[in-house]
Amino acid sequence: MNPRRILALFKKDLLDASRNYHVLLLVATPIILSLLFSNLFSESRSSTMMPRVGVLAPAGSPLLEKLQPKEFGIRIVSFSSRDEMESRIAEGEVSFGLMLPAVFPTASSPRGLPKLTMIYPVETPEYAVERFRNTLEGELRKFLGKPAPPLPIELSFEPIGGSSAKQRSFGGDMLPMLILMALGMIGLLALPLSFAEEREKHTLDALFLTPTTTTELIVGKCLFSFVLQHATVLAMVALNGRWDGNQPYFWLFVSLGSVMFLLVGLFIAAVAETQASVNAMGSSLFLCFQMIPTLSATNDLLRMAANVVPSTYVLRGIRKALFLDLAKVDILGDLLILAVVTGLLYLITRIVFRRMQMA
Fold first, then answer.
1. Which residues have a Cβ under 8 Å from the Cβ of 55 and sit 6 or more positions away?
2. pTM as predicted
3. What is the C-alpha separation between 302 and 289, in angstroms, rounded?
4. How many CB atoms lie within 10 A of CB 61?
5. Over 70: is that where the pLDDT of 167 sits?
6. What number is the average pLDDT over the span 35-45?
């Protein structure tokens, strides 16, 4: 074994890697993500995992000033209406909500007791509700100076959700994330990889010489992957028995999400000339499209960043269609944003492919 030959091979690979952006991208992506998440989640684990609690209270509510997030182990989010708060609870952005009274009685008379209402998802475990009830009651007694019953305030606990929420489980909640993963893997990796393979075999050049229009080219290249995406999702739904929820909306979001991922995949295929480049770009985009929507509920900055990631609206729409009461949440807004983004992506892809055909 000759060390000089081994060193020469190492130097050659190092020089080639420094010239290939896809190698640098593969190395830089996990480093950047590690720096990003280490700075976003720099607080302690207990602080990061604090539940977000919605509060609906009139201005100057004495109890609102008493609620200290760190003492209660919560993060407070203020709302202006009950409908808005219920919608955020149903969507999972807020763990539960509190409706605080404006004033407290000065006398011990039981008449006209002010009411404090806690709203929580119907699938919340009873022990969790009971634990917060005891904590809340203890803090109220300290605040009102009433160490013994009865409290001069009425406590009310109202679950929200619906029949589908009662059937939810941890495994079931992961299904939308896995569906998003399937759509992304086929759209961002499988399609552009097949495109790059055709380019390397020079069969793509022959395709550009045919009278095929730009629209026909885009639809034709996406059709098989589109069918494959739906077949994959259908198998996942059938094998897991997830036929509940609003199926028309569910499949509408699956279809729009499929088209969105495929258009991004075609853009990758147009920019990346080799399979290695496709792997680098597709994998990096796949991580962003998968991780940001999935982790958006854990951090305010990620929550804002998720609004500009198209896959966020796919994941939201699928979750709402499968699990939530659509009368209490806004699903049309997600559908409209996803449709507009998909339309813009189509226009961009059409321009790129038109230039490729004319080149």
1. 64, 67, 76, 77, 78, 79, 97, 98, 100
2. 0.73
3. 12
4. 17
5. no
6. 58
Convert the pLDDT of each residue in 306-321 to its tens digit: 889 999 999 999 988 9
Same domain, 307 and 199: yes
Tell the residue number behind the tokens 């199926």, with chain if given: 247
Q: Is residue 4 part of a domain?
A: no
Q: What count of other Cβ atoms lies within 10 Å of the Cβ of residue 177?
A: 14
85 closest CA partner among 76, 69, 74, 96: 96
Task: Give me the sign of the Cα torsion angle 15, 18, 21, 24.
Answer: positive
Tokens read off for 190: 């499988």
Question: Chain-centre distance of CA 184, in angstroms?
Answer: 13
> Edge-to-edge strand order for the sheet containing 115-121?
75-78, 52-56, 96-99, 115-121, 154-160
**DSSP tag of 265:** H
Residues spanned by the domain of 143: 45-161
CB atoms within 10 A of CB 250: 23
The count of domains in the chain is: 2
- Residue 44 is given by DSSP the state -
Distance, CA of 248 to CA of 270 (rounded, Å): 33
